[in-house]
Fold each of these.
Amino acid sequence: MRIATWNVNSIRARSEFVVGWMERNEIDVLAMQETKCRDDEFPVMSFLASGYDVAHLGNGGFNGVAIASRIGLDEVQYGFEHQPTFDSAGAGPVMEARAISALCDGIRVWSLYVPNGRELDDPHYRYKLDWLAALRDIGALWLAHDPAAQVVLAADWNVIPTDDDVWDPALFAGKTHVSEAERAALAAIVDAGFRDSALPYTDSYTFWDYQQLRFARNEGVRIDFMLSSPAFDDRVRAAFVDREARKPKGASDHAPVVVEF
């Protein structure tokens, strides 16, 4: 069985490519981030025609998360308990479309799009830290209630875990994604019991900016990966980052990460 995570960077522009990639790579479940569309705009038929059920959470041209599965899509949850809100338009705090989950053949799969943070002095940075802290707290509670739980946190984490996960750490000094607080917030989720399932099998970057020939030069970062509960991680036998999916003209600036178990 294969579960993948992929920041698709606008699903309406890439639905046929994404579905074709899933079929060629025999993906059973795909967690998608940054779909950039409302629920009524999501190209559901492209997935249904290929045998995938879909659950989506989106509210416009930003954010958006989805799960496509051909092995079951039950007990869909939109957001997690105590998920932080953010006032992005001055109209009051709202819960952004950043978290969705479903039960897929007994596995609770979460598709998560962690806030970017923008700048270290931006309110969005505090929001990001609060968001990760809330995820850590609820994740620890899940594992405490059921140590045998099969849970996958598949995400664009918008955090670079270590200096080994970026082509040039000096370029990120004093910026988001590498700050001590962000890395500590991510490490706290790991300390709560979740494991980086792909890391033993690949250390490839997963994101390359469109500008300055970053992909051609392999000047990337690793920000897309899955943190799994111990019971799920014990079943993992292989993983890879599909760099080929980043190559075509018009592709997402992220590559999909696939875990096989």
Amino acid sequence: MTARAVTDPHVNAQRRILTVLALTQVIGTIGVGVAPSIGVLLAGQVTDDEAWAGLARTSSTLGAALLGLPLGALAARRGRRVALTSGWWIAALGAALLVVAAQGGLVVPLFAGLLLIGAGSAVSLQARFAATDLAAPQHRARSLALVVWVGTAGMVLGPNLGVPGAWLGAVTGLDVFAAAFLIAAAACLALAGLLVLILLRPDPLTLARHGERTTPAEAAPAPDAAAEDAVAPAVHGRMRRAAAALRGNPTARLAVLAILTAQVVMVAIMTMTPVHLVHHGGSVTVVGLTISLHIAGMYALAPLVGIVADRLGHRAAIGIGTGVLALSLLVGALRPDALGGIALSLALLGVGWSFVNVSGSALFSGAVPLRSRASAQGGVDALSNLCGAVAAFASGSLLAASSFSVLAVIGLVALVPLAAATLRAGRPRSAAAPLIS
């Protein structure tokens, strides 16, 4: 059998898988996108207490962190299709609970619903890794970036579900928030899960593992993969697998450091920017425009970022992203009182995050053995969300105790370990295969 005959079925399967992932990513992220907008407003309305409202606003992020690891472990055991379907349906259940919370003004369904809807964020992240399972090494970053990019539509449309929610509420008598979450549950999250269940065939992770078993060059497992097979399939065993993927693997460690650093710096600055702008006379319109520029920076250029990462190498792209993040923080530190300066800083922050996150994620996918890849990816996403939640909490106290400039300088300091590790890793041997040290 020729190499072409072996490869072509995977190429065709990859095209189909990317199409399904892109479609379900758009539909699902519309449902997820309702949480940081309408969910925030609902939290304030139901709790009527700023402290409780603040905790409720971070519940979806905490939910993504808590559910990321078990959903990754489920992918490792049953494949991407089962894990993605389960995640979207868990998020749909969360949105349904938020319908109850909004309609009845109930606190417990509010917290439970926001926690469970975080599963949507977790599988949205997992979908980007699913795009790399069958991708050729020189195309991993652009495949991953495509799934990240199409999620932009959901992030833009999700916060506006209040418009059809008002219409549905007028027809059904539901509270406008309840109606918006009903749309998110039924027309977005549940539908995304159903489409994945029906259409994501063949399962990309299962097919990739089958190729690993049947391809002679890869028939013998790597030493670390063989050792992982002896690990019990319990929860602690899966966590040990994720940790084992990093031991003795400097490429994977660099990728994880990149993903976590970018997330912490981005969330800390982005979370406090609206508060800072309002304190300096910024209107709601200015705040909205600034955050929109930031989101555009995060997602709009993702396909270009993927191409750059594949051509220059993922370490080089991480270095570019680190530099853009540093420039963003310098602008924020030097021009904290200029609305234009803050808007520019936030836009650059999004672009820098995109470079580091896309490149780091692609680098991690190629550096971790298939046998432990899904569990390790779920663990990294869970840790990333958890670090983001901690950064959001900490940034509020830092801003209250100091200033936006000091917060930006702290962000610059946080970039130093990543910059040092990237420089120490050196340039990849070739642009075509930059993934393994």
Amino acid sequence: MKELFFELIKTYKEKHIKNLEKSFVNDLSERIKDDLKIRSSSTSIEDIDFHKIQMDKIKVAKFVEIVNKLQTEKIIDSKEIRGFKVIAKTKKFTGALQLQKKSKSKLTFSDAFNNYDKPYKFLVSLKNIAIEETDYYKYFVDIEYKTLNKHGFPVSGGERSEFNLLHEISDALKHDILMIDEPESSFDNIFLKNEVNELIKEISKEIPVIVVTHNSTIGASIKPDYLVYTTKLIDKGELVYKVFFGHPMSKILKNSDGEEIQNIDILFNCLEAGEEAYYERKQQAYEILKN
């Protein structure tokens, strides 16, 4: 404790002496300035804060260093969704039109972009444009998003549609229920079976999932927990909808009025274009192709 006490006294004396020296120099400077004012009729020179000037230079240099690092092209984030990968990459803007597009306005950025490679001058130029100060950061670096397929190449139009579907389904857990209407209308059966069905079954463990389909790949291979079949008919000149429901393995489906319908007939008509078409494909096409 004694050593610490003496160390504190020593530190205090050193700081006190420095403060006295600063005070002495400042007082001397003020006296010299006052004497010069009395002996000269010229306009006195305003005080110059050299410390502030130096600190401003340091701040500008640090700002330039940070901006240069931000503008270095690199991947800053990536996310994988069932074989697809979304990457976010930083890159520099290449023209004033990109800045205008970023602003979502008709403002002119030509003069500002001339200073784009000089970060601090560019910042000063942005202040001459009618944009919010809180938006300045948007114009220093662009962020490009790319979606890649399982081979690491940019997705094609069809692959992008597949990714969009998977992405939307994956986000379903943010909600209370997922409803999908005829996903087969835009995708092939292999993709539906291997990707969509598997993802749907995973999500169905957490929230209810309702799928409307006329495709056997979705309807049968998804192995649903429950079936709902809606049919419409004309009864005494009026349009009537009847809803039948039951377990997928039940031979009979019923409606709220107690009416029954054969499950196999529904599956054939909805998913296989009828019993005749099903057996025709099975016997005349698939069997012939077998070894």
Amino acid sequence: MAADPRFHPAGSPLTLAEAAAIAGGELRGGDPATRIAGVGPLDAAGGAEISFLDNRRYAGQLAATRAAAVVLAADFAERLPAGVAAIVTGQPYLGFARIAARLHPAPPPRPGIHPSAVVDPGARLGEGCEVGPLAVIGAGAEIGPGCVIGPHAVVGEGVVLGEGCRIGAHASLSHCIAARFVVVHPGARIGQEGFGFAVTPEGRFETVPQLGRVILEDFVEVGANSCVDRGSQGDTVLGAGTRLDNLVQIGHNVRTGRGCVIVAQVGIAGSATLGNGVQMGGQSGLTGHASIGDRVRVGAQAGVMNDVPAGTDVVGSPAWPAKDTLRAMAALRRLGQKPGRG
């Protein structure tokens, strides 16, 4: 099924030659001048659309596809039916993503401030910003050029947004410095008070003032309804290019390196540190003050209680190195087996 034009307006069509160049691939078969206007899955794409194969599980669909072209690895190119062009690349998903972004580009900002928005006179907005209905921008906020502030979004006092940031509907930002091209999806909360309190002799809780900020570096994305608490003394920092999925909790003083991927329902407790390129699977958790090295991969639902050295894969709860966990599970299965008849 092609992208619904009500929600995903089409850009300019591409020739197959242009598509191959965008994908960084080699065009095999087909007329380079053939034009494509959209994208679709292998089993539904039509003759003016392009598809891709990046998972051999779906290789069986190649023989019946009716797409104009398919972006795929060289090993699968011969499986395409006659008349379907191949765009061969070592990274089919990336190549397809770049083509799709050209065929269905994100809508540009529509410069202007909606009459129902509330923008403090002390706020500064760069050229070409779009401010949606009922949005609020506080005193001293600085909004870079080309930013989009969605309906009902709140950009608090003193918040700084760099060039090209997009803030989704109902999102809120306070105590935050964001760099260029940061995306905050609908309902996300950035910069609220962290979970810090002291206990009195009488057993009551007294809040410890949370006096830090949230720093979002270039190209960070924060998923819908995710929360990033501000630091208690220092700052909470999400490194350049880091992606948070929906429903992620980042505690105060957490610092991530560049290009981390944090999947849905992950919780990272305060003052934990992640290196570059860390990946955390869905519903995994990280204890406070832990240090996670570069390129660590944490399996889904894993509970990480200790520091993890660089390049390690960990799974289970409590999380162990993946090989150790698999050995332990195998031993446990053997223990649970009924003894054979002698």
